UniProtKB/TrEMBL annotation:
Alphabetized Pfam families for the sequence: Arm-DNA-bind_5, Phage_int_SAM_5
Alphabetical UniProt keywords: DNA-binding, Membrane, Transmembrane, Transmembrane helix
Keyword Transmembrane: yes
Domain Arm DNA-binding residues, every copy: 9-96
Signal sequence bounds: none
InterPro entries xrefs: Arm-DNA-bind_5, DNA_brk_join_enz, Integrase_recombinase_N, SAM-like_dom
Domain of life: Bacteria
UniProt GO molecular function: DNA binding
Domain Phage integrase SAM-like: 108-215
The keyword Transmembrane is assigned to this record: yes
Transmembrane segments: 249-267
Name by which UniProt lists this protein: Uncharacterized protein
């Protein structure tokens, strides 16, 4: 929801300079909260219109004053829009600090997530992390980006704006919009917890938005193939080479007890080294084990 926002200019009449001029001040109001700042200019109060907050007349002083005030207003409006688009939460103090050049650039959720994924991918390429885990983080990043735009109409959000409501809303988004089951939601909230932990450890976030959130992994019974079904899968004809490769990978893991993750790592390494795979050797090995 967009904030109520206004900016006006007024005179600080109680402070009169030796030449009779008084300082011009600015006031920013957002959702009823105000903050003031100096416009770093003075003007003769006789040529000031209190109602419009501008200088009166066509004199060089009046025209220059109004030009400077217009420039300030444009900058304030620009800072307001930038902060709103970035953080989805704007205060008068934030806008004033941005205008005065005092704003501390806030760490945002998607920027931290993006950097984490980039670093994780380097570890995957070095053979130190699993491609499957990287894929999970990339999927959650994509879902979060879609959630932010759909729910808050923003592309990113400041870490300090994360609340328990944000977590429960994301949980609902995964269930209702992405049709995720409970265990998938449990898996997908783990990367978000990781980002929150990073933020807390770096003191970018003071309170844990997960503090009121609870989710438990449900025990599931996994099915298994019978000997006849495995034989049918082994001898069956599939539509294309890709399906055959997936079939061969599955059966290879079944016969050798090698984890699918390790098979993916091997294939990824072969592809990285520009070596061909799927040339029939996998099938030969499978029939040998059968």
């Amino acid at each position: 929801m967009r904030s109520t926002f206004s900016s006006i200019f007024y005179l600080k009449r109680q402070v009169v300079r030796k030449d009779g001029t008084v300082p011009v001040m600015g006031r920013i109001t957002i959702d009823g909260t105000q903050t003031q700042f100096s416009c770093k200019m003075t003007i003769d109060p006789k040529i000031w219109d209190t109602k419009t907050g501008r200088a009166i007349g066509r004199s060089a002083v009046a025209l220059e004053t109004n030009r400077m005030l217009d420039k300030i207003r444009v900058k304030i409006n620009s800072h307001y829009q930038e902060i709103f688009d970035r953080d989805n939460y704007v205060t008068a103090e934030k806008v004033k600090n941005a205008f005065l050049g005092l704003e501390h650039r806030q760490h945002t959720l998607m920027k931290v997530f993006e950097q984490y994924n980039e670093d994780y991918e380097k570890l995957v390429n070095a053979g130190m992390k699993s491609p499957k885990s990287l894929n999970k983080y990339q999927v959650v990043y994509k879902h979060l980006k879609e959630f932010l735009y759909q729910r808050y109409h923003v592309n990113d959000i400041a870490l300090k704006e994360l609340t328990p409501a944000f977590i429960t809303d994301f949980d609902m988004f995964l269930r209702a919009d992405k049709h995720c089951c409970n265990n998938t939601v449990w898996i997908y909230t783990c990367p978000l917890r990781t980002m929150v932990s990073i933020a807390i450890n770096n003191e970018w976030l003071t309170r844990d938005p997960f503090r009121d959130y609870e989710i438990k992994k449900e025990e599931t019974k996994r099915g298994f193939l019978s000997r006849d079904e495995i034989q049918l899968l082994l001898n069956g004809k599939l539509k294309n080479a890709k399906q055959e490769l997936y079939r061969d990978m599955f059966l290879f893991c079944s016969f050798t007890f090698v984890a699918l993750t390790n098979v993916c790592l091997i294939i990824n390494k072969l592809q990285t080294n520009n070596r061909s795979i799927g040339n029939g050797l996998e099938t030969t090995c499978l029939h040998h084990f059968a």
